Amino acid sequence: MDSHASYEEDVDGHHVLVSGTGGKYHAQKSQSLKPGNMLNNLLGIVPELRQLANLDLKVVFNRDSCNIGPKEWVTLAKALDASRRNYDAFLVVHGTDTMAYTASAMSLMLAGFRKPIVFTGSQLPLAMPRSDARQNLIDSLTCATSSFNPPHVHLQEVALCFGGKLLRGNRARKVHSNVYEAFASPSYPNLARMGVDVEWNTGAMLQPEGVYRPRLRLDPAVLRVPIVPGVDPRVAYGDLVGRGVRGVVLESFGVGNMPSSAWLPWLRAQRKAGLLVSMVSQCAGGALQPELYASGSAALALGVEAGPQMTAETAAVKMMLCLQYPDLPLGVPLAGEM
Hints:
Elements: E1 5-8, E2 15-20, H1 42-45, E3 54-59, H2 70-83, E4 89-93, H3 99-109, E5 117-120, H4 133-144, E6 158-162, E7 165-168, E8 173-174, E9 183-184, E10 192-194, E11 198-200, E12 222-226, H5 233-236, E13 247-252, H6 260-272, E14 276-281, H7 294-301, H8 312-324
Parallel strand pairs: 2-3, 2-4, 4-5, 5-6, 12-13, 13-14
Antiparallel strand pairs: 1-3, 6-7, 7-10, 8-9, 10-11
């Protein structure tokens, strides 16, 4: 934790931890979209937040989100786990480029957390006149504190709030670089939409089962491998295991199809060498059914994992987790990710 922290008093009686990780929220107008020191001033710039909860503000780290990866995910997960008993909800301010990865990581590493962890960010820095940061912050904290106010909706999962939508964190993807509705959830319904009122989709919300067990280790030796027509993986990728890669997220065509002449021999050799392979689809939505094609069936026979469809971001993070925790099957859901 960074030593900079502030505490705001309010009559509401509930406590929310706002964690900062960097991104455009904190960039000054004169900066070229670099993290700045504005995080500690959020409560002064958006005073409406004080009406929703008592807030502790802590900087976990402050950097461009393109530089956030497994090391930072472990740091953030440890910070959230250590604060779990002390707060009713958590709001994480994060840059947009890797927010879907980080939200997926928190949902899997902290499965069963049973308190709201809501991610948000902005397309424009908070200091700019047309910034979306203010509304995203207010919407996010409204959702994070939803159990305290009518209609008392109990959010118990990692979510991502952006552009007027609340999405399951491990189903969200960044789909646009410069519109305010930058994130979507193609494979799962929205948890809520923000208008004059918050329109909750309670039937889509996660109901955690089992005991909370944080898993705070990740193996970053994972690679996303998209199948591209005409590309021979024996030439393009070669011996991944020999170069230290332990897991691959194989991004197939459609329901799980691939060219057999080049890809199957490469998969056979790499699987024999010990490479763990998880298949996803290059399609944003729809089912994963590789058994419908001869090449997909052959990949399954080689030991390629192909459970229900996950986003490629979530599949990569889950691979990192499962490599550190071999008792976790890739094809079994932990937090509604599949």
